[in-house]
Amino acid sequence: MDAADPLSAYDKRRRPPMDTYRRHRPIHGGAGHLRPDEPRVLEEWNAFAYRITGTTPDLATAQAWTNELRVEDGPA
Predict the structure, then answer these.
(1) Neighbours of 50 (CB within 10 A)
(2) What are residue 40's DSSP bridge partners?
(3) Burial 10-34 (b: 16+ CB within 10 A, else e)
(4) Mind listing the pLDDT tens digit for each residue in 3-62?
(5) Of 18, 37, 55, 75, which is least packed with CB atoms within 10 Å of its CB?
């Protein structure tokens, strides 16, 4: 935290856990790497909590969606 910034503690709380802005989970629960052909729930951080933004038919599509944000935020 920055001692000179009075809002630094607030800003820190608004960051997602482990700085993961997008994540996916199996619809029926369980480990994310098992059953790669099952559908996934897509979740996105909105500065307070994760919210469901959609679904994908399989693990590969979910991983591509998760990595999409990282590519957009990378160096230009």
Answers:
(1) 18
(2) 26, 56
(3) eeeeeebeeeebbbbebeeeeeeee
(4) 787 777 766 666 777 778 899 999 988 887 888 999 999 999 888 889 999 999 999 999
(5) 75
**41 HSE (CA, 13 A, CB side):** 10
Tell me the DSSP string of the chain. --TT-TTHHHHHHHSPGGG-SEEEEETT-S-TTS-TTS-EEEEEE-SSSEEEEEEESSHHHHHHHHHHHHHHHS--
CA dihedral angle for residue 16, residue 18, residue 19, residue 23, rounded to 10 degrees? -80
User: What is the C-alpha to C-alpha distance for residues 28 and 52, in angstroms, rounded to an integer?
Assistant: 15
Has this prediction a pTM greater than 0.90?
no
12 token code pair: 């820190």
